[in-house]
């Protein structure tokens, strides 16, 4: 196919790559104003018009591709890079983007003969368009700061100068006017525009892990579904998750909503089918929405989607907050919390008309993801506040003085009666705590001590099915014991009560973090998955009729 632009001013056409005279006609793609036309060309003259329709968005997209990219030998460009550039372009021009599959078809129609290769090491490879590059005069080059880092990470955006996303609400919520998205728009846009300042706090080297195999569990496919449909769904869902990871690693939070809407075929009702392009046409060819709806009711697909979401969200957590104790800029923390606050609403809105079974699973996983982000950012905030206390010699001296006046004999008796705590363990914890405090250890050294406490207490249960229960029970005992110590300090009007209260909040939250990861490791799951199971259990309990519910004693 050859390509050209018909200029409405003078009604002449320009051919980009016109082949020599041939006996057979060749196919030519033209843009004429708001018209998208495909012609048959023979010896450089117009022969037959075979397709004419009003496709204004496509015209803009084709022109944008031709303005910014060109074919060349021996070069390649990550497929996700082009798509993320395209999402930014749509955000700036207020166009409704098509999904990744439809965009890929458009690229191949513009750049004929383009090949796709999967490049990179195993577990970190990505699909590339081979023989395509960014033009030397393209403004997209402003998105690149470190080409070496870009090649290693294969990211779609740069670490230096970036094209700023649209600051208006349309750019954030895609014109949907979500209430909460409106409130959070400025913060999310600002952080994405300054991503180069925050890359050092992220783990940009992490890639999406391999997804598990989909097991049919002996359940036959329902009428209307074929094995190829399931395979296609797995492919496009993997591409969808990779796109989410790529925009998240560049802190382009608003684009997550766009990706969700595109994948789940969200549309808001169009004025005229003759005037507006069906944005999901290519998706329909690859996987019709009717088939997508049937897949969303098929139990093996539901279970597979849950596992994939847990892997995706765990990767995103480890990218955004790779170390919960490391100081994070307040702007980055606030942007992550704003995103956690709005993401469930975005997903719910994008999945309108999708079967409830799939929506429920997706929302539970997304809710666990949001809750984890909120908890980890809160833990990080506590850690930074506690650093000031642990580095203050005068406060440490006062804390030791107040701690020595605590009646630990009474504390130990209460803990033994309520929790069954072993006297030897309690005494050892008391001595170690005082010694570590006296040494004025850093926060990281305290973290090592807390991790050692968990390992020591749970060592007898390693490899046992009782490990998760023992870990949760230890968490309850730790919480009760620390609350009794705080109560004693309160009754004695300890001068360092505020410092102890802050330290107690931090250590309780960090202990919860440690137990969460130990339980997940013991069960062979991700922490997100463990929290998702807990959230699902809570929701099912809340949905019970309180008059018919039963109360169960918690074993200690």
Automatic annotation (TrEMBL):
Residues 368-460 form the PI-PLC Y-box domain. Keywords: DNA-binding, Nucleus, Transcription, Transcription regulation. Residues 61-136 form the RFX-type winged-helix domain. GO terms for molecular function: DNA-binding transcription factor activity, RNA polymerase II-specific; phosphatidylinositol-4,5-bisphosphate phospholipase C activity; RNA polymerase II cis-regulatory region sequence-specific DNA binding. It comes from the Eukaryota. It is found in: Nucleus. GO terms for biological process: intracellular signal transduction; lipid metabolic process. GO terms for cellular component: nucleus. InterPro entries: DNA-bd_RFX (IPR003150), PLipase_C_Pinositol-sp_Y (IPR001711), RFX-like (IPR039779), RFX1-4/6/8-like_BCD (IPR057321), WH-like_DNA-bd_sf (IPR036388), WH_DNA-bd_sf (IPR036390). Signal peptide: none annotated. This is Regulatory factor X, 1b (influences HLA class II expression). The lineage of its organism: Eukaryota, Metazoa, Chordata, Craniata, Vertebrata.
């Amino acid at each position: 196919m050859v390509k050209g632009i018909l200029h409405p001013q003078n009604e002449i056409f320009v051919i980009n790559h016109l082949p020599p005279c041939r006996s057979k006609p060749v196919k030519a793609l033209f843009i004429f104003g708001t018209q998208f036309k495909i012609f048959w060309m023979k010896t450089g003259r117009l022969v037959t018009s075979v397709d004419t329709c009003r496709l204004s968005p496509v015209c803009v997209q084709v022109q944008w591709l031709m303005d910014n990219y060109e074919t060349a030998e021996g070069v390649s460009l990550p497929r996700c890079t082009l798509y993320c550039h395209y999402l930014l372009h749509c955000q700036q021009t207020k166009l409704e983007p098509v999904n990744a599959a439809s965009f890929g078809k458009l690229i191949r129609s513009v750049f004929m003969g383009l090949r796709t290769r999967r490049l990179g090491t195993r577990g970190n490879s990505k699909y590339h368009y081979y023989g395509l590059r960014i033009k030397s005069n393209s403004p997209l080059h402003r998105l690149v700061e470190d080409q070496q880092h870009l090649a290693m990470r294969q990211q779609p955006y740069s670490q230096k100068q970036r094209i700023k996303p649209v600051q208006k609400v349309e750019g954030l919520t895609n014109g949907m006017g979500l209430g909460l998205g409106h409130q959070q728009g400025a913060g999310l846009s600002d952080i994405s525009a300054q991503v180069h300042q925050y890359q050092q706090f992220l783990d940009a080297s992490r890639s999406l892990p391999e997804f598990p195999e989909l097991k049919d569990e002996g359940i036959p496919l329902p009428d209307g579904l074929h094995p190829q449909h399931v395979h296609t769904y797995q492919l496009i869902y993997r591409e969808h998750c990779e796109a989410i990871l790529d925009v998240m690693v560049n802190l382009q939070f608003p684009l997550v909503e766009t990706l969700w809407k595109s994948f789940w075929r969200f549309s808001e009702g169009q004025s005229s089918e003759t005037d507006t392009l069906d944005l999901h046409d290519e998706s329909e060819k690859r996987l019709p929405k009717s088939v997508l709806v049937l897949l969303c009711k098929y139990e093996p697909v539901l279970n597979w989607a849950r596992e994939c979401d847990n892997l995706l969200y765990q990767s995103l957590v480890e990218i955004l907050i790779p170390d919960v104790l490391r100081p994070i800029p307040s702007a980055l923390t606030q942007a992550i919390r704003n995103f956690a606050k709005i993401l469930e609403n975005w997903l719910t809105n994008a999945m309108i008309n999708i079967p409830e079974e799939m929506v429920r699973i997706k929302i539970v996983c997304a809710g666990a993801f949001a809750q984890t982000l909120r908890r980890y950012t809160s833990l990080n905030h506590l850690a930074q506040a506690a650093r000031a206390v642990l580095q203050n010699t005068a406060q440490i001296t006062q804390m030791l003085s107040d701690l020595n006046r605590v009646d630990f004999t009474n504390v130990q008796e209460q803990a033994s009666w309520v929790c069954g705590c072993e006297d030897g363990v309690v005494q050892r914890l008391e001595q170690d705590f005082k010694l570590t405090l006296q040494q004025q250890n850093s926060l990281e050294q305290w973290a090592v001590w807390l991790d050692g406490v968990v390992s020591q207490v749970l060592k007898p249960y390693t490899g046992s099915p009782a490990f998760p229960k023992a870990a949760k029970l230890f968490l309850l005992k730790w919480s009760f014991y620390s609350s009794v110590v705080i109560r004693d300090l309160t009754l004695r009007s300890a001068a360092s009560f505020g410092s102890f209260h802050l330290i107690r909040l931090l250590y309780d939250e960090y202990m919860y973090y440690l137990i969460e990861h130990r339980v997940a490791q013991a069960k062979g799951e991700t922490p997100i998955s463990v929290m998702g199971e807990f959230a699902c259990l809570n929701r099912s309990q809340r949905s019970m009729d309180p008059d018919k519910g039963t109360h169960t004693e918690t074993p200690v």
